[in-house]
Amino acid sequence: MQARAMAKYIRVSPFKARQVVDLIRGKEVREARAILRYTNK
To answer: What's the confidence (pLDDT) of residue 40?
Structure first.
């Protein structure tokens, strides 16, 4: 299953956002949510 999310007007640097996206890209939803739960950024 593929999902796509778009966020506009978020106050976070593009570098920091890219780091988080790179962590979860290509992962299953359950695994990605677990990673995001314990990510500080």
So the answer is: 87
What is the pTM for the complete model shown? 0.66
Q: Are 23 and 39 in contact (CB under 8 A)?
A: yes
Measured between alpha carbons, how far is 3 from 10 in angstroms, rounded to an integer? Answer: 19
Of 15, 31, 37, 17, the residue nearest 5 (C-alpha): 17
- Non-local CB neighbours of 31 within 8 Å, separated by 6+ positions: 24
What tokens does 28 get? Answer: 């299953």
Run of H or E including 16: helix 14-24
